[in-house]
Each structure stands twice: as C-alpha cells, then as structure tokens.
Amino acid sequence: MSYDRYVAICKPLHYGTLLGSRACATMAAAAWATGALFALLHTANTFSLPLCQGNAVDQFFCEIPQILKLSCSGSYLREFGLLVFSAFIFFACFVFIVVSYVQIFRAVLKMPSEQGRHKAFSTCLPHLAVLSLFVCSSTLAYLKPPSISSPSLNLVVAVLYTVVPPVMNPVIYSMRNQEIKQALRTLFGDILLRHQ
Which pTM value belongs to this model? Predict the structure, then answer.
C-alpha cells in the first residue's frame, strides 16, 4: 500500500504503467508466497520440537514464543534463527514503508496547493494509522520486558494485536466517507449526552 501511495502521489503520470494489473498480481503473489513460506517453516519447525513441560499453552492460540517455553531441547535454536530471519524481513519491509512515506511527505510538502496537500495526506493517513496500530500492538506483545509479563497480560495483549487492528481497519479506512463521519459524531454525541 505504501508503494501504491508513493506512485499515486510522486509519479501520478506513470501510475498505470508502474501499478498495472500484472504488477499488482506480482506483489500480491509475493506477499502470499512469503506468508505461506514463513508459516510452513515455523509450523514444521515447531512441530519437530519435543515438549517436556506439557502441551498446554497459556494463550488463545499457539504462538511460537509460547511453544518455545514448553520445549526442552536445544533444537529451539533453529526456531530462534527463523525468528531472527523473520525479524530481518519485517525490518526490511518496515524500512521500505518508511522510505516510501518520507518520499511521499517530501513531495506533498512541495505542493503549492493546500487542498492538494490535504487530499494527499488524507490518502496516506489511514494506511499509516492501521500500520501504526498493528506495529505498536505487535511490538507491545513481543518486546515487552519479562518482568511485566503475566499469563493474563499475555492473553490481553494477544487479543489486542490479533483482534483490534483487523476490527479497526474498516473503521479507519471509512473515516474518509463524510456520511460515516457524521454517523459516528451523532453516535458518540448521543453516548456523551447520556453519560452527562
């Protein structure tokens, strides 16, 4: 999506050639193939780990760090290597997104028209909001210090990053629609009036 926004704002005359149906299909296939490859590698590796602390995971679903806690062999190093490789790929994608948006913001700030700047920013901000929500909640889930970790907090954080971003995604993207904005203002206005 960041590349789409980049081409639409920074190279609008080349949009049709740079993001034709073939390019979109290639990017979608690459995203699906990468996701499938990582899922296959992690699943095959975690199923090969011997579990010596039972098989009950303190989560709603089997996350890799939770399964690694149950492992009793040194073979978890392979999974750790896969996690490091996954983090590297994630970081490379994140850098690509940041560089795309830096280029977009540089181009937008050079626009002479305030209306053009507003339209460009309103095109980019929903994607940035959804991305930020996902990255922040995932970072909280995986990089929180062990000292504040507890089973109940882990469950809450897991729900936070697996449920909240997908639920908020359509809400954030539809905020550009004036009718939905007005409906939300009315809804929240009614709720605030009832509580006063």
Answer: 0.67
